[in-house]
Amino acid sequence: MILFDRKNAELMRRHEKELPFKRDSLVLWLDPWFPESDAAALEEDLGYWIERGQRFFVANNLAHLGMLRGRKGPKGEALTVIAGPWLYTFNAHAAAFVLGEGAEFIVPPYEVGKQDFQRVAAGVPSQVFMPIAFSFPPLFRMRADLSKVYDFKEFHDRDEVYFELHSGGDYSVVTPATPFSIVDRIPFLRKEGIGKFILDFSSVELQKSMYKQVFKAAEEGKVLQETSRFNWKDGFWQPPEEKKSD
Questions:
Q1: By CB count within 10 A, which of 4, 163, 208, 232 is most buried?
Q2: What is the pTM (predicted TM-score) of this model?
Q3: Residue 51 scores a pLDDT above 50
């Protein structure tokens, strides 16, 4: 998968002959930031790549679903549209809506908790899910290059939890320094009918050793050390506090 933002769209056009991936194996992850002024340019870019055999797209904005709905490849082949995490399918109603709008698969939100995910999965076919099993989740996305403002990359909060600032182009992303991982849960999720998983190495300087370690753990369903569950256990839900008697 590659983030299909304005910068990468331009680079892909410029270096089209050098792209190392075939169109039937490359997935374009559409940028969730989608101002109306970008509509014409994105429409043209999508048409360009669809005519060249690009079939797989991750929609991260409701407008993306409308732009991709009903489109066909140069030989009449259907596109595969994936509802990305920024469409926030936190419940079965949201999941049913994006499937009704043409999505074939759903990437659950980064923030979804295990119980919420199970409730959503009870309402739609489990094979449509494509969970993120490893990631440095983007906690904040800002439409500014903050490297021009701040001279640091790493920082921490008052609890000594560390974060990293990634800047470049026209946006910046804040991620936790510790990656999120549920690769050890893959065997159990497979038993529930889920067959596709995402290992997300964006916003990180990827090293071959890291890739091999994560991929091996995912294949074997083993726990990755020095990782967190992020919000997988409870999501953002918190039990109500009991009122104390006087």
A1: 4
A2: 0.88
A3: yes
